Every structure is written in C-alpha cells, then in structure tokens.
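Exercise: predict the fold of this chain.
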Amino acid sequence: MPLIINPQTGYQVTMNPHSTFSVNTMFSTSSFLSFTFTNSGAIGPVGPTLLQALSAYSSRPDIISGLSISGPGYQSFVIPNTGTYRFTVNGASGGVWTTSPMSPVSSSLAPTIDGYKRPPGALIRGSYNLTIGQIITMVIGQGGGDDDNVIANCPGGGGGTFVTLGSYAAVLGLTDTLLFVAGGAGGAGYQVLDSASDNYSAGIGQISTFGAAASEGSGTFGNGAPTIVTSNNSSGGAGYLSGPGLATTTDFTTTIPTNAVPVGFRQGAKGGSFLGLTRGWGGFGGGGQGANSTTSDDDKGGGGGYSGGAHAFDADWFGGGGGSYTNPSATSLTLTAGGNTTSRHGSVLLEFLG
C-alpha cells in the first residue's frame, strides 16, 4: 500500500482498501483526557477528508495517532485507555429559507446559529465502558443546506451524529455495536401566506428513537422516513439501518450526490442533494434535501438520525427532526431535544473518566 508524507506535518498517510485513510505517528495516547471530534470544516452531504481532519486536529498529535478517515467521512479512533468514557453527542441543525427562516412564534424559541434562527439538533450524553485498543467509528452530522432562492423555500435537513463501537470494516460488515445517535433537525422556512402549522417542536432533533412527523410520515425502528422522494420533491431523512423507503442501496463514495436521496449510516450516511452544494442539500449524516424548485414550492428536507425525520410539504413550516438513540448498557444519560444550540454542525466530545 502506498505511503504519502505530508510535507507540512510529517505524518505518514497510509492509503488502505475501501477508501480508508489512516495516520501513523510515534506519539503515545496514554495521557488522553478529552477531545471534541467535529466536521473538520466539511459542509454538505459528504463528510471530511483526511487533510481536513489533519488540519482541524493539528494541535493534538495524540488524536491524530489513533485516527482514520474512511469513505465519505467516517472518523474512526482507537481507544487509548481502558475505563469509562463520557460521550456528548450533538446532531446538526436544519437549513433555513434565508428570506424568512421562521415565524415570530418559532423565532422566540429557536437559537441563533450561523446568523439565522435555526432548528437545532439533539444533544445526547452518556457514559460507556471501553477497553484500550477498541475502535469507535463516528459520523459527525453536518448542517442542512440553506435555500437562498427568494421564492422557493426549500432548505435541507441536518445530519444525525452517530457513534458506533467497531472499525469502518465492522460498519461495512454490519457487525458494529451502536452506542449513541443524536438526531439532526429538519429544514425550516416560513411563508406567512401559507396555510401551515407552526411545528417547531417537531422540527428540532428528537430524543425519541422515532423521527418526527410533518406533513409526511417519519422513520421508525432505526429506518429512514417511509416515503422515497419522487420527481423533484424534498426527501425525509435517513436512519441507522436504511434510507428513505427502507432503501439499502449503498454509496460509500466521496462524490457529492446529485439527484440522490440520503442513505442510512450502514449504507454510507450521505445526505441527499438535487443540486450538489448549490442550495438545499441534506447534511452528511442522512439529512434529506429540499425540493429542486425555483417556484414557491415550500418543500423542506427531514433530519437524519437513528430514524429519519419526515419531509415537509406546504402544510408544515418545518421538516421533521431525526430520532436519537442510546445503547442499553450506557449510563448517566441526559437527552435534550434541540440541545445543540451553539453550532450548525454536530460533534462528539469524548472524555476519559477513569
């Protein structure tokens, strides 16, 4: 397998099968206390590359020594010590219609994130016992794409953030053990002339394992929203086990999708997109895309999560938020719907408790 030496960092980068990229250094991880894994500056339906992660984590060679980036942005990390770890997992926020993100009622409830009132992703916290040398693999949810078309109102849903016990190969082999999921929020947009319901509580990342319903149905039992998008309509979010409509077609490539619905965590975790990074995409982590329209279509994407949130037509101002999950063996649990009030994207704070 070829080796590449990064001239700025000096790290050896090994290119492995299945689009897996790992970093090998001489640093010890025995003094690990805590670290926050992020989207590393990536936006859109596909997650960070190795170079983005190296740049984002450059101050922590102990993290880089145990890190690998696989496929469209799965981040794997080798556990450095045996003991109890606390995970704080944040889902991503939904995209907004930049002309009019929210009604006055919802605006009074929603946090301001990245310059707009946005529906926030869920926050899930819990502890889990791990052993040195075990590997966790993470998908960090990315924010849904905004729609800046002054007529259309078709933003995308945010991606869910997933933490599973097992390597990327275990994910591919369906042998991973899911630990935590924090649901992403649905897309949001407000048309005062529409006959719509102000369903802010359904639009945020959920703490139920089910996604939230909007004008369409939501995902259940770890699956994507039940309806596959047709024509140029918006899409519900993907889940852990499947994409919308129980689809299990895989896409572990690094290509930003066009004219494609989101896929589940076990299928590649990519968000949906009609127009690439132009507008209204679904965020990495299974976020559903907004409709491909330049007319007053008002169709919003659902959030990704353990189960996918519903996509929304004119009858709702929010797509449904994605569902969340905690492993039955996890302890000290705290679950907050819409708890990620500070960042458009998801994150995983890993703390060693001893």
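Check your answer against the key: Residues 96 and 327 are 32 Å apart (CA to CA).
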